[in-house]
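Lecture 7 notes: from sequence to structure.
We start with the chain below.
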Amino acid sequence: MTCSKTNEENLSETIRKKYNRLRQIIIKAGDAAIGFSGGVDSTFLLKVCSEILGDKALAITIKSEVITASELEEACDTATEMGVRHIVLHENVLALPGFVKNHPDRCYVCKKTIFSQIKKQAALYGIRHCFDGGNVDDAADFRPGRIAIGELGVRSPLEEAGFVKSDIRAVSKSLNLPTWNKPALACLASRFPYYTEITEDALQQVENAEAFLRELGMRIFRVRHHESLARIETGEQERGLLLEIDHCAKVVKYFKFLGYKYVSLDLEGYRTGSMNEELSSL
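Predicted structure tokens for the same chain:
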């Protein structure tokens, strides 16, 4: 089932053209294995692919130490609700020296590894094309993983069709996808400053810290891990919630229980890819 005419009429002409362009890209491909995280972009892409390709669409999710348990569960639930074929593969990214050392090319190492696995799995099912959920906005940030994807011949149909994040949210809303206003996802490794070693214990520390903030009712935030210091980035609404005296005390107490010695609030607030700000000084 595709987006109804009524819903499409709620979209701008520019977005409708991009949407039609996306459909044509997928129709021409004829089959696709989609790297599926359950986030805004890959959910939208999977939805359109499944409607056009039917059983020639395959969702592949990579389970690893940098994906939270709740994100994996949501991805599985979403794929089940869509009725698409879905495979979960495991990749131990902490076994990759280039990943654990956390150099600026960490994302390249990770993407090259996981999409190589996705391509192999797709081939077993006779699927020729692999898609990722990259969009035009991704080109504005430092994302070495995009290079790895290009080297592997993985396509980014949303980017090819000209979609920016706001377009994806708009069409997702018209399709009644629950992810249309979901906060952006990023792997847990993005919480670590470059050249800080990524360990399983530290990843679990960050996951637990963010789960606690989510339980307090926060939606837009990140916990950046600076060894003994936790630096919390928040959206404007979340900042007020966090600064309530009772919440402050709870957060400090729990974060120290997790092993942090210091808990700070970043006054600049939440922003994607904030660890990349360090690159200008490297």
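Points to note: The longest strand covers residues 57-63. Residues 188-281 form a domain with the Alpha-Beta Plaits fold (CATH 3.30.70).
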